[in-house]
What does this fold into?
Amino acid sequence: MQINLTDREMELLRRLLNTESKNDRCTGEQAEVYENIIMKIDKRMSLKRL
It folds into this structure.
């Protein structure tokens, strides 16, 4: 599935996921998924800057 987000939306989503992955109630599996999404956002944003 492809979702098109603005740079601002991606940045806010990244911050939210980063905060959630550090939440005490977050399971290891959830944290792993969040970190994978963060890596994808980072990759996309770095490609946009080129």
About this structure: The radius of gyration is 12 Å.
